[in-house]
Inverse folding.
């Protein structure tokens, strides 16, 4: 039996056929590595396939670029995170450094945490990190972010909710 394509899959297929080459060329101009450009191009269309609802965009190329830019930003943020981790690792005496396997596991955990916190607004992410990593209290965070203490509580609740979802899935 041949599966019946959904209208959404047909739309993604049409976008892929009509604009993939153009998107790939755009990505190659913006990314030094041709393989990374290929991956980002594919990830852009995979992101579309993962959407629950998709309507035909009025400006398909602008629509695809917006998605690709988000993926590109995520890529650069994760690369910066990895570089920061490796830089910090170099400061640890060699005898105390984790094994290569442990380093990879730590790096994957950091990327997962980054992905998790990436779902929060920048202020919610900052509030959560100030609280959990720096041990700042609500009033200190409110002052740093220029928001009220109740808003900080909301931000922290959002961060905790993301952690809950990562551990246990969506609450029912």
């Amino acid at each position: 039996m041949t599966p019946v394509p959904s209208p959404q899959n047909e739309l993604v297929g049409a976008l892929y056929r009509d604009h993939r080459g153009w998107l790939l060329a755009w990505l190659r101009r913006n990314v030094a590595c041709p393989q990374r450009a290929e991956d980002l191009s594919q990830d852009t269309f995979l992101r579309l396939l993962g959407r629950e609802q998709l309507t035909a965009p009025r400006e398909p190329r602008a629509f695809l670029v917006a998605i690709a830019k988000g993926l590109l930003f995520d890529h650069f943020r994760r690369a910066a995170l990895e570089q920061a981790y490796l830089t910090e690792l170099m400061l640890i005496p060699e005898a105390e450094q984790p094994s290569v396997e442990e380093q990879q596991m730590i790096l994957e955990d950091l990327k997962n945490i980054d992905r998790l916190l990436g779902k929060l607004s920048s202020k919610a992410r900052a509030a959560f990190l100030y609280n959990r990593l720096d041990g700042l209290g609500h009033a200190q965070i409110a002052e740093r972010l220029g928001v009220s203490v109740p808003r900080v509580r909301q931000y922290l609740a959002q961060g905790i909710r993301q952690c809950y979802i990562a551990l246990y899935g969506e609450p029912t």
